[in-house]
Amino acid sequence: MLLNDSFGSAPLARQAVQDLGASRIREVANAGMGNPDVLAFWFGEPDEVTPEFIREAASLALSRGDTFYTQNFGIPALREAIAAYSTGLHQPLGADRVAVTSSGVSALMLLAQLIVNPGDRVVAVTPLWPNLLEIPRILGGHVEQVSLQLRSADSGHPAVWELDLQRLLDALTPGTKALFINSPNNPTGWVITAAQQQILLAHCRKHGIWILSDDVYERLVYPDPDTVAEAAPASAHEAATAQQSEPVVNRDRRRAATTRALPCAPSFLDIADAQDRLVSANSFSKTWLMTGWRLGWVIAPAAVMPDLGKLLEYNTSCAPGFVQQAGIVALEQGEEVLGHTLLRYRAARDFLFDSLNAAPLREAGLVVPRPLGAMYLFFGVTGEHDTLGLCKRLVSKAGLGLAPGSAFGPQGEGYIRWCFANSIDRLAAGVERLNGFFAEGGFTDKN
Length: 447
Prior knowledge:
Helix content is 38%, strand content 14%. It has 15 helices and 15 strands.
């Protein structure tokens, strides 16, 4: 007799895991992956391979026999390179506050494990990548969501996602363990302002609330003259606090004086003290076209690094040495790659934005905000309340793979995410299929 037979039921995972929502992005992708006739834009992945000089660094490391375990925190050379890179963008940072991780999502999980207890209350700004929403739930935490608001287009200005700062502050009550925030945001492309960060940091300091900042897209920003992320504060409270903070122009001059002239989104790392309850997760995936390499890093206060080392050991032990060697080269020689990527993505964003705003799609009820960062266009479909079903129909009837907005929390329902990290030719083919889907009544035909 099998041991579990005595209990009269099949073996089950613990309840918190059973209660997790399966990825709806994967659910759509599974309906079309492997089909060469499907144009897939469902994942956050570029259509270009990792640059050759980065691949060569890994190949050389492998040829030298770099196949052994490394230090839990990463090889010293990579930690130093990350510290120098972050210092060039933000404030001086020592390598002792840096840990290398096996992917950005691993960085997020490790940081959540570091600060979230079962029963803890976590506040997340949504819509948000589903992995980051589910991670605290895996640990037994409770997640309260504060949704971004869509400001409608007016006076020639496009629609744009905005943060209701006061609503977020009201949600960050005493006893809240952590704020989870991703800016530039996946899926909306929203970018937090420096003034908003000042207020949030001061509020979290006052109440002892951790900030877990997902900074994976910090280099993918497209500041527009009319809608730059450093726009005027949105409230009297924000304006009053902003006057007491470092002027944006001073911070920009400080950044411009560094060796990195390409843009970077406002960051809590610009303003936080080394002792603040701030942890930052980052990744090589988006900035240097390295999604399949599974390499990331975290920045944390020195006081928690010994405990973070324990978690690294008990999760993945270490990242592969030859992958870390590629990371060093990406950091030290990759700005030209980023410059190329930003030019491509801005052109792709503008093309897709204009295409989805054109008739007949506009007349079909599409609402298309312009993203200020990241690599996604998150557009609304008027009257649609089942984007999972709609995206599955797009796969089966139009051969077009997009991500349902409901994957990013209930506030995302009615929207669809399209990754624009692709060539304009490929995007144009996708738009043509979407137009054909509409022409054939696909938005109204639920079968």
